[in-house]
Amino acid sequence: MKTRKIFGIAVLSLGLIAGLNSCKSKEKVTTNSEVGTILENMPCEDAGRSDKKFFRASAMATSSDLSLAEEKALLNAKQRLVTLISSNTKSVTDRYVNEREFGDASEFEQKFENLTREVADETISNVVVACQKKSVLANGKYRGFVAVEVSKEDVLNGINNKISNNQKLQVDYDKAKFEEIFNQEMQKMAEERGF
Fold it and tell me: Among 12, 31, 60, 101, which one has the highest count of C-beta atoms within 10 angstroms of its own C-beta?
């Protein structure tokens, strides 16, 4: 009889504790209407802004493993950097083709775009990590922040080297004109980003 009483009290106590905890969690959900905390300035964000001399990108990733969070952030930043370089060189190519007269402009443009895409992918080997930070969240997960950069000179040199190996493109390539347009696009990008 005594054990039944003790067992009954234990079950009743557990029920009360569970009931109180469930009330607490419901209270949290209803009183907290925010989805999350908005960060005004992400770590490494400023170091990930492009200017007229560098292509830059930043990223963040979360994982239960610190090194994986850092690797994911680095991979995301590199992907953003390739996209930025490709987008910029596409604008430069479009302007270059429009300002010059070619026999078959569409063929030149297509070959040149393929070449600049290759250069953007290869340029990733010259990437420099400009900023790297990490944090631990309340749930025990890790967050990695990173900013990467590559100089516009590395990109231009890559394009010039690829063109020097392609006789068909070399015929229609005016290095000085291309670099002038490239520098104008870099300046435009820097101004759009507040530099």
Answer: 60
What is the DSSP secondary-structure string of 134-155? EEE-TTS-EEEEEEEEEEHHHH
Structure-token pair, residue 1:
């009889």
Which among 76, 84, 50 has a CA at the least distance from the CA of 145?
Answer: 76
Token pair for residue 69? 């969070």
Select from 118, 47, 44, 129 the least CA-distant residue to 85.
118
Distances (CA, A) of 26 to 21, 63, 75, 139: 9, 27, 39, 19
The 10s digit of each residue's pLDDT in 160-172 is 888 888 887 887 7
In 3D space, the residue among 64, 65, 91 whose CA is nearest the CA of residue 178 turns out to be 91
Using one digit for the tens of pLDDT, what is the confidence trace for 148-195? 999 999 999 998 888 888 887 887 788 899 999 999 999 998 888 765
Q: How many residues does the chain have?
A: 195
Name residues whose C-beta falls within 8 Å of residue 177's C-beta, 6 or more positions apart in sequence. 96, 99, 100
Residue 177 zone, left/alpha/beta (φ > 0; ψ -120 to 50; rest): alpha
pTM (2 decimals)? Answer: 0.73
